Amino acid sequence: MLSRAANAAIILAAVSSFALAQDGTYGVTVPVTASFGVMDTHRLQQSDPSRRAATYGFRVTASPTLRFGRHWFVYASLQERLTPYFYYDAYYPDHDFDFDLLQAFLGYSLRSGKTALVFKAGELSTAFGAFPLRYDDMQNPLNDQPLAYNTQLPLTARQLPCGTRDVLHQSYGYVWNFCGGPSGWVDGSVPATQYALPGVQIELSSGRFDARAQLADGSPANPLGWVSPRSYAQWAAGGGYTIRQGFRAGMSGFRGPYLSPGLRGALPSGSSPRSFPAGGLGFDSQWARGRFSLNAEWQRFWFAEPGFQVSPSLTAGYGELKAVLTPRVYLACRAGWLSPGEIVDHAGIRADHFAPGLRNLETGAGIWLNRRQLVKISYSWLHMQGDAGHDYDVLGLQLVTSFTPLNRAFR
Fold first, then answer.
1. pTM of the model as a whole
2. What is the pLDDT of residues 214-224, one digit of tens each?
């Protein structure tokens, strides 16, 4: 299995790294980002109208790095949060503690002139997409995330729909299909995860060019941990070119099985999860000049399902603009969409869209209290096709603090 191979690679490389470290410097640094947030939204009242429309939460992210000599290093990113904290948490109003492993890997780096090469093995963020690199609250100028990274679709990797009518009866967030998998409500799949996948990765940057290639155990649409039943190896890759200083264009993609291994017995005779892959293709760009910066992504996803002539697919994207007014104050705005596509089952039953389209606009401002403390306030409008209300809008405020309790170098 890929995960076992990656785990073995980490252990063996770690042992060898200590031997190599005798000839170089080594050290440890542990940057921490701590955030406290409050929000006001009717999302909290979706399941129980008697609840208050306001709540609070917090998030702490620690990202320790251990360096052994000039080449070897270990990196991790660990997250603990009290939910609801993110805007998408507000659909689940009960307070709860969630721990997430964002990354944890062993790395080996080489550099020659303007060319750098990095190898990684362990729990990795997906190589697909651009936003996961800005998941930290200090890097994200707003409080919410783009729709493709936080929307639970009316699809799931744990259950099989019986046909078009079955898919149309589902809703965003919760899914209950009847043609395979565990019974009852299960969470919908998110198109592209922001959390860790077991795998190995190689990264190259040379001059204006950068590239990455990843072999992972688990799909960005169905991430699995080390102790989960195994999926199948699949690839993700990306790269970009800096056209001129401050302007980069890139693209990325992934493809591989995404259905949970427990569905093998429910699949058509002679097939396996390998027969029904998920895939994604994305384009991204980053631009900055003076006081202004822009980030944008366009993505297309598809999910092969047994029993369908035309399986579910969707397109999504966003554009994000940031304007620095003073050294302490900035304004930001992000507009995005998610558009589900056509489906046709083997009985010929067709639907133009397997779910309502989504549109999102978030505007906000940030105020630096000092170089380590940032206050962010934003208002997010979320519109679902066929719904004219404002029950999904969110007003939120975050106080973000960064500090480094441990930063020590040795020789």
1. 0.89
2. 999 889 998 87
